[in-house]
Amino acid sequence: MARFLKVIFLLAIIAVFGWLLWSKFENKTTKVTTHQLLIERIEAMGKLELVKYRFSDVVEHKNITTFLPDASVLLIIKADAVGCIDLTKVKQEDIEVFGDSVSMRLPLPEICYIKIDHKSSRVYDTKMAFFREADLVDEAYKNAEKEIATEVKKSDILQQTRANALNVFTPLLKGLGFNKVSLTFEE
Q: How is the chain classified by DSSP, letter by letter?
């Protein structure tokens, strides 16, 4: 019996020592990250952003297969579309000054960018996705990008960009001393 207690006591000491040793090394995880960051391109910017539209899209994307259960994902996607005019396209001959009058021809409004806001977008639900979830979510985001781009083109963002350009440039030019301001857009 005494010998049995000695073996149990020795195993308990080994277990405690092993646990202390294991916990000491486990907590000393070192994380190392290295970066090799390079500036790839520098571009001069001249686009004046004049309006931003915020879109919300609820996307249900399904993969229907013959042998596996149908996998689906439900996303709530937020995206921004920005309308602008490119001031780098304004040439000297586009601006005419006559005393206290100015006439300026601006470039046509354009869509600067359409961008999904991944911080505000959410994967709401997945069903039967298992190991296919990442691909399913990726496909849903790509489909949403296409649909949002189509809806942006159907919207009045370019007309709103045009109106905002007039609202920005008219007081600016009047503030520079021009009493009569005429703003037009290229055709």
A: -HHHHHHHHHHHHHHHHHHHHHHHHHT-------------------EEEEEEEEEEEEEEEEE--SSSPPEEEEEEEEEEEEEEEEGGG--GGGEEEETTEEEEEEPPPEEEEEEE-TTT-EEEEEES-GGGHHHHHHHHHHHHHHHHHHHHHHSSHHHHHHHHHHHHHHHHHHHTT-SEEEEEE--
